[in-house]
Design goal:
The protein is α/β, with parallel strands linked by helices. The protein has 14 helices and 21 strands. Helix 3 crosses helix 4. The structure holds flavin-adenine dinucleotide. Keywords: Oxidoreductase.
């Protein structure tokens, strides 16, 4: 199909961008891999589950209703179940290459004059002994099971790691009837207090979560970490321990908690594959954008967590600003974003930066990773193998990958790259993956033969 603006990602950023651009007379195609719009924050239960009160699992449901109803009333063409693996420049615009449906084998193309990337982020999980046991899930994964499948991952859970996402996960599981044995947060209150001024606007939200944790009697273990998950063929419990101010486990503080579920997460990382494929520059690990959310590739915008982790409200503001800018570019007019969105972006960016600085995994986490702990799950590479590669002289992720195959499997390092970098003692580097998704060779071959024919 042909359109003026292809928006990739139908989370808060992509929805706000599509609505803003369509309201300004732009023909928009909104493309997403999921079967429903909403992204991670407004993840909807599968239609077949006939959820009676889906709002019970969500915050800010009114905003979702406004987005959903606005989309239904708009001219935006919604293309769900479209897994985009690459965006290619062509004369006069771009081709968005996608694979359709759950099998992801049938190709589809969207030709657009401009592209807006709103592909969000993904979870960052660091390894520890026992983390591959059944019963250990990511914090966002537990949330996705609840919101999308209306199921709980177990009966008694520990929620652990670091970052603000642990709060809705712990309270969400508790409200759904799971006994939450503890919320284990490696960041201490002192670290948060150091960013008090920038986080002042987040206080009411934080107080709300604190009240819910109290109501559900969820014990909070601040400046603690999970050092080991136990079980033979599935999780039966975890050992937690206190951390000192340097981020080292304090000897003698270990204790065991019985649980059948461990929901663990160490923050989020931006999805940048599609942006990098088109040649967009990065700012650290996120897509670099200017004040109008334009990337450094003309005709390409980015918004939401692909440009930095900051939460759903920031994603909405950035999406709106990006949509207005893209529409203005296509119409030859001046961008007219709502002043409230500009104000919200300024305020929320500063609290996002403070949260990012406050919530960091314990500095000495690699010391807890035993040699037999699997680091790269796809290729089953252990921490011992990574350390052998380091002994052989590897000093970065890429050399470790070449020596051990860590990061060469199905997920292409999305799960293990940060862990390998941590074990190697170097900062994580940008991914540089040519395709955002695995692509069947038949699809590539057919595309090649079509190009030769044309
Ligand atoms: C698993 C998970 C659970 C979360 N749970 C919570 C929570 O409970 N509470 C909270 O406050 N915050 C939560 N967050 C964070 C919150 O979801 C984000 O702050 C917010 O959704 C960001 O909005 P976004 O539009 O930038 O991205 P997202 O909402 O992540 O939307 C991105 C969209 O892009 C689509 N996409 C990505 N790549 C492709 C591709 N190649 N092809 C096609 N489509 C693609 C995805 O399917 C997704 O729908 C969660 C995040 C994650 C990852």
């Amino acid at each position: 199909m042909r359109t003026e603006l292809a928006v990739i990602g139908a989370g808060p950023a992509g929805l706000a961008a599509s609505l803003a651009a369509a309201a300004r007379g732009t023909r928009v195609a909104l493309v997403d891999a999921a079967t429903e719009t909403g992204g991670q924050f407004y993840r909807q239960p599968a239609a077949g589950l006939a959820a009676g009160r889906p709002e019970a699992l969500h915050h800010r449901w009114r905003t979702w209703e406004r987005l959903r109803d606005g989309l239904a009333a708009s001219s935006v063409r919604v293309l769900t179940d479209h897994h985009v693996w690459c965006v290619e420049r062509e004369s006069g615009g771009f081709t968005v290459h996608a694979l359709l449906g759950p099998e992801q084998e049938e190709p589809a193309e969207v030709h657009a004059r401009a592209v807006l990337l709103a592909t969000g982020g993904y979870e960052h999980v660091l390894p520890f002994p026992g983390w591959t046991l059944p019963g250990v899930v990511t914090a966002g994964g537990a949330q996705a099971m609840l919101k999308g499948g209306l199921v709980v991952p177990g009966r008694r859970a520990v929620v652990a790691g670091t970052g603000p996402l642990l709060l809705p996960v712990a309270t969400g599981l508790a409200a759904a009837g799971v006994e939450v044995a503890a919320l284990v947060e490696s960041t201490g209150p002192g670290r948060l207090a150091r960013h008090g001024l920038a986080l002042a606007g987040k206080l009411p939200e934080g107080a709300g979560y604190a009240a819910r944790l109290l109501r559900h009697r969820v014990p909070v273990l601040a400046r603690h970490t999970v050092v080991r998950a136990h079980g033979d063929d599935r999780l039966t419990g975890v050992t937690v321990a206190a951390l000192d101010t340097a981020g080292r486990v304090r000897p003698g503080t270990e204790r065991q908690l019985v649980c059948d579920t461990l929901a663990v997460g160490h923050g989020m990382l931006p999805h940048t594959d599609l942006a990098e494929g088109i040649g967009c520059g990065l700012d650290g690990l996120a897509v670099a954008v200017d004040a109008e959310q334009r990337t450094d590739v003309p005709g390409v915008w980015a918004a939401g967590e692909s440009t930095g982790i900051g939460g759903a409200a920031l994603a909405l503001a950035e999406g709106h600003i990006a949509g207005c800018s893209a529409a203005a570019f296509l119409r030859g007019t001046a961008p007219d974003p709502a002043p409230a969105a500009l104000k919200a972006r300024t305020k929320l960016s500063s609290s996002a930066a403070a949260l990012d600085a406050a919530y960091v995994p314990p500095a000495h986490w690699p010391e807890q990773v035993t040699d037999d702990t699997v680091v790269c799950r796809c290729e089953e590479v252990t921490a011992g193998a990574v350390r052998d590669a380091l002994d052989l002289g590897a000093g970065d992720e890429r050399t470790v990958k070449l020596l051990t195959r860590a990061g060469m499997g199905w997920c292409q390092g999305r799960m293990c790259a940060a862990a390998v970098a941590g074990l190697a003692g170097c900062p994580p580097s940008p991914s540089r993956r040519p395709f955002a998704r695995p692509v069947p060779l038949g699809v590539l071959a057919r595309q090649h033969s079509q190009e030769e024919l044309s």
